């Protein structure tokens, strides 16, 4: 194992947990030492637990097959075996919030894929290329929790990953209002086509809780750390519609934006193409070399063709043009279970390790 940090995956049997397991199979910094899930799976080998519900297109990694799945609520025992955990467990928000706090209070940092703690004022919601500086709030959080090394950090909702990065690259022009209609893959609900027959030949115009997250979470990402909490930004005003479409992976968004200082089309494209993440992020193992890519073709980005750009960690845009009501409109795309879920979590953990927040016990 060398100098790798020991990590647990809480919720390892679900789709995002499986994605975490695959991404961490040969990770240079992290070694999975614990797989945990609900009581229904505890005591089984991982192969037995996911036998009929392995959802990845790649095979179950050999190294995990014989690992015995632990009960996620055996917090003390798990914490004795890991330096930190990824959490992707499927519980109600109250249960999830309490469970993540319990791990943190047992001096085990939590990098969460869940929404339960995203609205907590001293919990950073990280897209490392954009708001890595929010990690500084962790010190305030540890004081509240009464911990020395335990804390919670989360990645934002998958629905915002496609449009927040390209809008962020344009902040100097002061975006005022945003309309975003997202067309979201079924994997966002943790399902495959076999598990979601109602989506075949169909579009479902409702995803529970998604629009509230899509409208509010960007404001926290663009907020400021003041007085031991993150103060949400007041602008831009965001309104969304979130729609489930018959696609395996990839969330596509149609975005409309008004600016206080309207840029030219050329200035927008230049801002996208020249956007560069902080050097500390660019050197992380999972970081995309080029975060944002603009397509000049009229029919790109396409979900099937472009969701895996930069190993699924980059954002693609296209169809930028002026609008009759808004200043501009464009289309953008992100991979929802990579950048939008497990991949974003792994990148956040890498960033937190590089900044000294994740260490060996």
TrEMBL record:
Protein name, as recorded: Aspartate-semialdehyde dehydrogenase
InterPro entries assigned: ASADH-related, Asp_semi-ald_DH_pep-lack, NAD(P)-bd_dom_sf, Semialdehyde_DH_NAD-bd, Semialdhyde_DH_dimer_dom
SUPFAM superfamilies membership: Glyceraldehyde-3-phosphate dehydrogenase-like, C-terminal domain, NAD(P)-binding Rossmann-fold domains
GO molecular function, one term: protein dimerization activity
Gene: asd_2
Keywords: NADP, Oxidoreductase
Span of domain Semialdehyde dehydrogenase NAD-binding: 6-138
NADP in keyword set: yes
């Amino acid at each position: 194992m060398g100098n790798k940090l020991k990590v647990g995956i809480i919720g390892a049997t679900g789709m995002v947990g499986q994605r975490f397991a695959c991404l961490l199979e040969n990770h240079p910094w992290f070694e999975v030492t614990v797989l945990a899930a609900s009581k229904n799976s505890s005591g089984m080998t991982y192969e037995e637990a996911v036998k009929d519900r392995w959802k990845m297109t790649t095979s179950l990694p050999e190294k995990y097959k014989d690992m015995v799945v632990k009960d996620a609520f055996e917090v003390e025992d798990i914490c004795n075996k890991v330096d930190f955990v990824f959490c992707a467990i499927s519980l109600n928000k109250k249960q999830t919030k309490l469970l993540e706090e319990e791990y943190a209070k047992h001096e085990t940092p939590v990098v969460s894929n869940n929404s339960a703690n995203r609205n907590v004022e001293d919990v950073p919601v990280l897209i490392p290329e954009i708001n890595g500086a929010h990690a500084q709030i962790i010190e305030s959080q540890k004081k509240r929790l009464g911990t020395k090394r335990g804390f919670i950090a989360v990645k934002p909702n998958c629905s915002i990953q496609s449009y927040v990065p390209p809008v962020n690259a344009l902040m100097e022009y002061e975006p005022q209002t945003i309309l975003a209609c997202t067309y979201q893959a079924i994997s966002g609900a943790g399902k495959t086509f076999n598990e979601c027959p109602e989506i075949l030949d169909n579009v479902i115009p409702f995803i529970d809780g998604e629009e509230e997250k899509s409208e509010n979470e960007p404001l926290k990402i663009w907020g400021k750390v003041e007085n031991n909490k993150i103060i949400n930004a007041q602008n831009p005003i965001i309104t969304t519609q979130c729609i489930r479409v018959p696609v395996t992976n990839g969330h596509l968004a149609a975005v409309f934006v008004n600016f206080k200082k309207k840029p030219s089309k050329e200035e927008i494209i230049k801002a996208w193409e020249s956007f560069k993440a902080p050097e500390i992020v660019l050197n992380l193992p999972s970081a995309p070399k080029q975060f944002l890519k603009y397509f000049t073709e009229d029919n790109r980005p396409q979900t099937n063709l472009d969701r895996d750009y930069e190993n699924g960690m980059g954002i693609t845009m296209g169809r930028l043009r002026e609008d009759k009501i808004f200043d501009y409109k464009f289309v953008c795309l992100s991979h929802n279970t990579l950048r939008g879920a497990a991949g974003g979590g792994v990148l956040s953990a890498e960033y937190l390790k590089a900044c000294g927040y994740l260490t060996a016990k």
